[in-house]
Amino acid sequence: MKFTKQGIVALVKVLGPVDAVRFLQIYDSGSGDYTKMRKQWLEKDPEKYLAAVIAHGKKKTRA
After folding, report:
1. In the chain, domain spans
2. 3-state SS assignment for residue 28
């Protein structure tokens, strides 16, 4: 039995099928190119970015 399959079998045995799937979903690698997106974020004006973050925080506290 392959290592990955053994791990999944062990998770299902200990957690049950539903919780095993929930546990595995935690480690979803996502999609997209994080490095490329990060460069785009960092190229933006930090003052504008900070102002947007603060404005978003204020919206959440009013709601």
Report:
1. 1-30, 32-63
2. coil
Q: Which of 11-15, 40-44, 50-54 has the lowest mean pLDDT?
A: 40-44
**HEC readout, 36-58:** HHHHHHHHCCHHHHHHHHHHHHH
For 11, the 3-state DSSP assignment is: helix
Supply the pTM of this predicted model.
Answer: 0.43
Please name the residues in contact with 15: beta carbons below 8 A apart, sequence gap of 6 or more: 23
| Token reading at 7 | 């791990």
CA pair distance 4, 17, nearest whole angstrom: 16
